[in-house]
Amino acid sequence: MKHINTIILAAGKGSRMNSTKPKVLQTLSNKTLLGHVLMQAQQLCSEVFVVVGFGGKQVRQAFTGDDSINWVEQTEQLGTGHAVVQTMPHINDDSISLVLYGDVPLIEQLTLKSLITQAQKSGIALLSVVLKNPTGYGRIIRQNKKIQAIVEQKDATQEQLACCEVNTGIMAVDSGLLKTYLSALDSNNAQSEFYLTDIIAMAVKDGKTVASVITENEFEVAGVNDKAQLAELERTFQQNQANQFMQQGLTLKDPARFDCRGRLSFGQDCEIDINVLIEGNVSLGNNTTIAPNCIIKNAKIGNNVVILPNSVIEDATIGEGASIGPFARIRPETKIGKNTKIGNFVEVKKSIIGKGSKVSHLSYVGDTIMGNNVNIGAGVITCNYDGVNKHQTIIEDGAFIGSDSQLIAPIKIGKNATIGAGSTITKNVVESQLSLSRTKQTNLKNWHKPAKK
Ligand code: UD1
Ligand code: CA
């Protein structure tokens, strides 16, 4: 078995994107197009070469930190053959070169593996697809079912244009052979480019049989040239992923209205309702449900958790049996304990909420360490910011904070203490104390409403 080199072509401009970003940096499911192709290449345990040209610096920058990529510059875009030529000085003759396109993101492992297997046997293997509308693509010319050549749209005869089997651009070739053929390329064609596709006819002339792999999945070989195609492939990607999740037992109320732009893992009997967006790394325990319109990013959510509609959770841990929302916002560095309740219009930031505690309505809890079985009344605010620095609030087990109170941090409310409703608390409160800070109520007997003038 020969070693595999993957060559990813990514030097083109992609002008139809109408963007300042190079095409391969457009994202599909929050990952760049090139990122998708690289992920497939790296799974093949191959050495990876990426040919960059237009916006090359920007492309390289987007992958800083990934030392496994060998970047190769193509300063002038003289065609796909010319692009591959740039990598040849780095590639050993005794290997297989797999050519991929940076703007064809959804190619799959199984397909690439079968292409490579064919190339190991015959020296050259080509991936094609049969399209209802082949316009624009290179046509596969066969004789007695054997591949003879690829003819580009602009160079093809009327008869050749009628052929619906097209070149995907993806091929695997013995590197020694590839070098020989590349050195014989010329640009005598309608586009005055060095076509990689010309090596097919050269191999045939050389007595080789070009092995053929035909994919049934159009999406695998679909290139992205404009925003409409990008959106279409995003849908396909999401639909495929949703199907996989459902096969693994996840209930999706409507797979067409569910997006996961990251990694999702889940236990048994989880349910996700419509218009939910998952980002980053999210894990769900068993029997957890997510209601409509929730956004969940980088979160670890336990068993039997109920997330009610319109809640947003980011960088947080939610304990078993907790209930979140509706309309809750759980911000980064928050840890919600077992069986807690975070109700509507509650924002929690960088806080730890203990077991069985309740923050049911209209509150802001920030930079807080809250014990177990605490009850926070409606409209309570931890005033954590003095305009310059952030300060901590500590609320110990069993404390009761009356509605519409403000706790001015830094502050500590002792175990089982009670804060009377409407208080502004600036000093620590010890265990089991009642603390109030309201002015005494006065009822004026002889008061009259002002008369209208
Ligand atoms: C190419 C194929 C065509 C095939 C089609 C599939 C050739 C001559 N034609 O045509 O048979 O049906 O792809 O989509 O190969 N690139 C570079 N440097 C260059 C030129 C291109 O890196 O000098 C890169 C582009 O960024 C792109 C890929 O190669 O990712 C394909 O280039 P493109 O111009 O889209 O090729 P097509 O003319 O569509
Ligand atoms: Ca083109």
Query: Sheet with the most strands?
Result: 12 strands, parallel
Task: Supply the CATH architecture of the largest domain.
Answer: Alpha-Beta Complex
Assign the CATH topology of the largest domain.
Answer: Spore Coat Polysaccharide Biosynthesis Protein SpsA, Chain A
Q: Looking at the structure, what is the overall shape?
A: elongated
Helix count equals 8
CATH superfamily of the largest domain: Spore Coat Polysaccharide Biosynthesis Protein SpsA, Chain A
Q: Structural class, from helix and strand content? A: alpha/beta
How large a portion of the residues is in β-strands, by DSSP E? 25-35%
Q: Radius of gyration in whole Å, from Cα?
A: 31 Å
Stretches where pLDDT is under 50 for at least 5 consecutive residues are none
CATH C-level of the largest domain: Alpha Beta
Please provide the count of β strands.
Answer: 37
Percentage of residues in helical conformation: 10-25%
Structure description:
The chain is an alpha/beta fold and 453 residues long. It folds into 2 domains: 219 residues, Spore Coat Polysaccharide Biosynthesis Protein SpsA, Chain A (Alpha-Beta Complex); 209 residues, UDP N-Acetylglucosamine Acyltransferase, domain 1 (3 Solenoid), CATH 2.160.10. It is 17% helix and 33% strand. The protein has 8 helices and 37 strands. Strands 13, 15, 17, 19, 21, 22, 24, 25, 27, 28, 31 and 34 form a 12-stranded parallel sheet that branches. An 11-stranded parallel sheet has the order 12-14-16-18-20-23-26-29-32-35-37, covered by helices on one side. Strand 2 and strand 3 form a beta hairpin. The termini are far apart. The mean pLDDT is 97. Bound molecules: uridine-diphosphate-N-acetylglucosamine and calcium ion. Uridine-diphosphate-N-acetylglucosamine binds next to strand 1, helix 3 and strand 10.
